[in-house]
Amino acid sequence: MTFPDPPTLTSSPPVLQTTTDVRLETGEELNLTCSVQNTFPAANITLLLDGEPLQPQSEDSQSVGVWGLLWGQPGKHRCVCRVRVGPEERSTELVVNVYDFPTPQLSVSTDVPVAMQNVSGSCELPGGHREGIELRVTVGQRVLVPWGPSPLLFTLLVTEGHDGSELRCEAKVEGRAPKWSDVVRLNVSAPPHMDDQLCPPTHTWTEGQEVNQWCRARGKPNPVVTCHKDGTIILVQQLYVISRNHNGTYWCNASNALGSTGRSVSVRVEYWHVNVGLLVALAVVAAVLAAVGTVLYRLYYHKKKIRQYKLQKEQQRLLALGGFSDGAAASPNGSAPGAQL
């Protein structure tokens, strides 16, 4: 008779297991295999759970297997692999620790806070604390409350920067993938706010310039911003062509459902000043110069025509008197060679 090695008891799928201990979540199936090597004659193999034999679903001369064991409640259970070869008997034991690993629950005082308001809440496991399970709370990528036992309490001072951030509760236990609560997304509202960047206290513009950024405000819901001077209201969302009439001091107001705020804004418009008297004088001088030029041109033109007329008359007189030699032709200026004037 040969019985060299004790039997082995293994579990699957992979769970957190030591040589004598298995940790299993409620509702999770466990498969057990009891095996032995190098026995003679053939071994008689039995699997027991809490002292009761299990009906094998897989069996040969060297192993016995049982599949689909599961528990709905936390607790400890004793599994035994018993092997008998002739009169000799040996056994191996595993303790199955079944625990509950529920999804954590996150609760907050409000998910629609106003900026600079405290939001309080808690992260906990249903039914209270479970041994070995830790929780933590995060807001966005930042840890709000580090790992600790259930329940975890927290307080968050909300700012406008938290708008759209996600609050989440995470649970972990050794050997298991973490679990998360439902996400709480913060919808942060805020009263209107204006500063020197959003609403500069002074503007310097040029006449004819197109402008649509007199003053802006931050807040949620989006504030409505208006600026007014002497009863004239400017809707800052519209496009305006600046004129010198826009010069002056305005009171700009921003408001939404949570309140209103305002500030003074000074507008200076640069433009060219037109001297009407100078323009009229220049126009008169230009007209006088034009008239004088016309008179001078007419006198010059008249004298030129008189000289041409006298020259033509002199040529005609000389031709009539025959005051040039035979065969000679009159020169271009009307004089003949050798003519005596």
In short:
The chain has one helix at residues 276-321, and strands at 8-12, 16-17, 21-25, 30-35, 44-49, 52-53, 58-59, 63-69, 75-85, 88-99, 105-108, 117-124, 134-139, 142-148, 152-158, 166-172, 179-180, 184-185, 190-193, 202-206, 210-211, 218-220, 224-229, 232-235, 240-241, 248-256, 259-270.
Describe the protein in words.
With 341 residues, this protein is mainly beta. It contains 1 helix and 27 strands. The protein has one helix at 276-321, and strands at 8-12, 16-17, 21-25, 30-35, 44-49, 52-53, 58-59, 63-69, 75-85, 88-99, 105-108, 117-124, 134-139, 142-148, 152-158, 166-172, 179-180, 184-185, 190-193, 202-206, 210-211, 218-220, 224-229, 232-235, 240-241, 248-256, 259-270. The chain has a 6-stranded mixed β-sheet, with no helix packed on it. Strands 13, 14, 16, 17 and 18 form a 5-stranded antiparallel β-sheet that branches. Strands 20-27-26-23-24 form a 5-stranded mixed β-sheet, with no helix packed on it. Strand 16 and strand 17 (179-180) form a beta hairpin. The N and C termini lie far apart (174 Å).
Give descriptors for this structure.
single chain, 341 residues, mainly beta, Immunoglobulin-like, five-stranded antiparallel β-sheet, 43% strand, elongated
Describe how the helices and strands are arranged.
Elements: E1 8-12, E2 16-17, E3 21-25, E4 30-35, E5 44-49, E6 52-53, E7 58-59, E8 63-69, E9 75-85, E10 88-99, E11 105-108, E12 117-124, E13 134-139, E14 142-148, E15 152-158, E16 166-172, E17 179-180, E18 184-185, E19 190-193, E20 202-206, E21 210-211, E22 218-220, E23 224-229, E24 232-235, E25 240-241, E26 248-256, E27 259-270, H1 276-321
